[in-house]
Amino acid sequence: MKPFTLSRRRVLLILANYFAGYLFVYPMLIGLLYSLLEPLGIKHLQPILENAVYLWVFAITVTAAWPLLKEHLQRFRRNRRTIIKSSLTRYVQMWLVMYGLNLAIILITGLSSSQNQDTVVQQLTQSPLQIMLVTCVFAPIVEETVFRGAVFTTLRSRAGFRNAALISGFLFGLLHVFTSLLSGNLSDGIFILVYGTMGYLLCAAEEENQTLLSPLFMHGLNNLISVVLILL
Question: Which range has the worst mean pLDDT, 5-19, 139-153, 178-192, 196-210?
């Protein structure tokens, strides 16, 4: 099946909104607005601002990627049973690989979890509903649209599957240790291997099923199971 790619303008908008906006500009704006509005005594100001950013990033990402998402949704509808079965099989394979990598990291370094995972656990105890929505809805849709829909799909037609998947996977892995590396926790960089491998395997799922809905389903299922296990 001929790959469907977004226009350069749409891809740049998605990447700028996520990498420049979500990771840098929007957090700074939250801090600025909080310092200006906090004296007014508005209740729950911090989560309100955070949720506004989540909604903004989600809206811009989905709107910019809509031609691609629409095309991939139609592909899913035409072959949904096969795609769901394939995605479940690939999810089990992905889980086993990630479990093995995490186990190796524990044995070699003594690190039991990444800072990203520890942060999710902590936030779940403070704002369970918000973090569940962010983890199980926002993250799978936005991250798959960015890393598989914009990055991988665009590079796939130019660099081939392996190179495109490696780049997409590396960026996906880097994202999940980005905050800890900035804070000076360099040992957390080892988890790029885990998250990066996950990103590569999600690219493989899209490649096999020719729809973004496959890695999106796998990503969402993985996060949902993780959240349930944490809450239990």
Answer: 178-192
